Amino acid sequence: MKTRKMVFSISVCLALALFSLDSCKSDTVSEPSPLGPSSIGVVLDLTASPSIIVADQTHRQTADITATLAKYDGIPLSDRTVLFEVVNGSGRRVDVGYLGDELSLQAVATDSNGTAKTQYTGPLRSEVKGNTDVFIRATVVWDGTQHIQDSIQIYIIRDSN
After folding, report:
1. Spatial CB neighbours of 79, under 8 Å, sequence gap ≥ 6
2. Which residues of 45-80 are buried (b: 16+ CB within 10 A; e: fewer)?
3. Which residues lie closer than 8 Å to 160 by C-beta, 6 or more apart?
4. What count of other Cβ atoms lies within 10 Å of the Cβ of residue 126?
5. CA separation (Å) from 140 to 40, 56, 81, 107?
6. Quick one: fold of 42-158?
7. Which of 36, 81, 90, 99 is deepest in the core (most CB within 10 A)?
8. Where are the domains of the chain?
C-alpha cells in the first residue's frame, strides 16, 4: 500500500513539474498588423513654453506651442496638418487670447522633423475677470474617421496691479 502511495505521489509531482515548465515560456511583443484592429501606431506630443502666463494691463504674453507627430518607433511624420484650437476645460472654443494671427483656430503642417509650431498670445488684464486657464488642443485627422488628439493647459494669472 505504501508503494502505491509513493508511486502516486511521485507521478503527481512529475506532472506538476511538467506543467510548470511548459507555462514558463514567454512570447516577445510583436508589431500590430497594419490591417487591424483599429490601433494607430502614431504619437502626438504637445508642449507649451511657458505654460503659465500673466495677463497684465498693456502687454500680451505669449507661449510657444509645439506639436510633434511620429510613428510608434520615433520616425517623424511630415506633411500632416495639425489643427490647433483654443478651448476651455469642456472642449469648447473660447476667445481668451489667440493663436498666430489673432485666430482661435489655426492649421499648421508638420515639417521634416514631424513638428508643427504656433504661438498662443494671452489676454490683457481687462479681458479676464480673474485667474483662469485655457487649453490648446491639437488634432490630426487620420484615415477615414480616425483622428489623433492631444491638449495642453496654459494657466493665466491676472495681474493685480
Report:
1. 109, 110
2. ebebeeeebbbbeeebbebebbbbbbeeeeeebeeb
3. none
4. 10
5. 12, 33, 6, 10
6. Immunoglobulin-like (2.60.40)
7. 99
8. 42-158
Report the alpha-carbon distance of residue 66 to residue 45 in Å, rounded: 8
String of DSSP letters for 7-62: HHHHHHHHHHHHHHHHHT--PPP-PPPTT-SS---EEEEEEEESSEEEE-SS-B-E
What does the longest C-alpha to C-alpha distance in the chain come to? Answer: 99
Task: Label the pairing between strands 147-158 and 132-141.
Answer: antiparallel
The pTM is what?
A: 0.72
- 31 grid coordinates: 508589431
All cell numbers assigned to 143 = 484615415
Question: 90 near 31, Cβ under 8 Å?
Answer: no
pLDDT digits (tens, 9 = 90+) for 58-117: 999 999 999 999 988 889 999 999 999 999 888 888 889 999 888 888 999 999 999 999
Contact 60, 122 (CB under 8 A): yes
CB 106 within 8 A of CB 100: yes
> What one-letter code names the amino acid at 35?
L
The pLDDT, as a whole number, for residue 100 is 85
pLDDT of residue 146: 80
